Amino acid sequence: MTESGQATQVSPGETVPAGAGFGARLRASMDSLGPLCVGIDPHPSLLASWGLSDDVKGLEAFSRTVGEALAGRVAAIKPQSAFFERFGSRGIAVLESVIRQLRGSGSLVILDVKRGDIGSTAAAYADAYLDPASPLCADAVTVSPYLGFGALRPFVGKARENGLGAFVLALTSNPEGAAVQRAVAADGRTVAQTIIDEISQVNAGVSPMGDVGVVVGATVGPTGHRLIDLNGPILAPGLGAQGGKAEDLRAVFGNALDLVLPSWSREVLSAGPDQAALRAAAERARDSCASAIAVTA
Ligand SMILES: O=c1ccn([C@@H]2O[C@H](COP(=O)(O)O)[C@@H](O)[C@H]2O)c(=O)[nH]1
């Protein structure tokens, strides 16, 4: 969105109307650049294999290289906050510069930070990640509903106010998640389904899709959950290093495939530090997902 009220360019040749929400911007970006989010996860082992030191200098070089290779070429880029936080305030300063480098590049920035707290504290987190005045403001943020979906309202409100978004954990890619997320609530629905249904209500009637999405791992197998009414994006991590495969997407997401934003980190990042090799790895990931999604789209 521009202050002058003009259309915003989300990628070369692709514009969305001024004031468009995150869902509309992500839809335009996915339609134009393909269904792919690449994570920036500077693991110590990746820094080493790139020939970088496991310190702030290495972190900075790694993140800048990924940004230079992929900004504007993939629908979304997802910095994993943990790998920046491990270096304290200097790591956070690098995260701020990564966000500055990427925002407005045509690739939307999803900050993977999985925040969630009582509502009054959640409001402060929302100020940190979803207020344009903050140096950590991203296009969208990941949030955890463990304190109840209602406690996430400050994120939803702030996102809508600023044309930004939030992804709520529903069925995570790690095997431990199922014990909590698939537990059955008093009304017979799983915990994950109650979250999905709350979000469906928030997104109802928004075109082309709403600003609040869910995280559902590509590793979870056929979800057994109703995602078709979500009307919001589904961030699907777990591809590559965690064993998820593009060919699995159809079985996992069924009739909600069109909403899926597949996310890859280590598998793509391990192609670096050569920028052409990183781009080629991202293109392979995108093309494999696009073919899997096109089967039923
Ligand atoms: O359910 C979830 C939610 C988030 N993640 C995050 O995505 C990346 C995955 O990295 P890979 O290297 O592709 O395994 C990482 O930042 C996780 O924290 C997830 O994996 N599963």
UniProtKB/TrEMBL annotation:
<keyword id="KW-0210">Decarboxylase</keyword>
<keyword id="KW-0665">Pyrimidine biosynthesis</keyword>
<dbReference type="InterPro" id="IPR018089">
    <property type="entry name" value="OMPdecase_AS"/>
</dbReference>
<dbReference type="InterPro" id="IPR011060">
    <property type="entry name" value="RibuloseP-bd_barrel"/>
</dbReference>
<dbReference type="InterPro" id="IPR011995">
    <property type="entry name" value="OMPdecase_type-2"/>
</dbReference>
<feature type="active site" description="Proton donor">
    <location>
        <position position="114"/>
    </location>
</feature>
<dbReference type="InterPro" id="IPR001754">
    <property type="entry name" value="OMPdeCOase_dom"/>
</dbReference>
<comment type="similarity">
    <text>Belongs to the OMP decarboxylase family. Type 2 subfamily.</text>
</comment>
<dbReference type="GO" id="GO:0044205">
    <property type="term" value="P:'de novo' UMP biosynthetic process"/>
</dbReference>
<dbReference type="GO" id="GO:0006207">
    <property type="term" value="P:'de novo' pyrimidine nucleobase biosynthetic process"/>
</dbReference>
<dbReference type="Pfam" id="PF00215">
    <property type="entry name" value="OMPdecase"/>
</dbReference>
<dbReference type="InterPro" id="IPR013785">
    <property type="entry name" value="Aldolase_TIM"/>
</dbReference>
<protein>
    <recommendedName>
        <fullName>Orotidine 5'-phosphate decarboxylase</fullName>
        <ecNumber>4.1.1.23</ecNumber>
    </recommendedName>
</protein>
<feature type="domain" description="Orotidine 5'-phosphate decarboxylase">
    <location>
        <begin position="35"/>
        <end position="281"/>
    </location>
</feature>
<dbReference type="GO" id="GO:0004590">
    <property type="term" value="F:orotidine-5'-phosphate decarboxylase activity"/>
</dbReference>
<keyword id="KW-0456">Lyase</keyword>
<comment type="pathway">
    <text>Pyrimidine metabolism; UMP biosynthesis via de novo pathway; UMP from orotate: step 2/2.</text>
</comment>
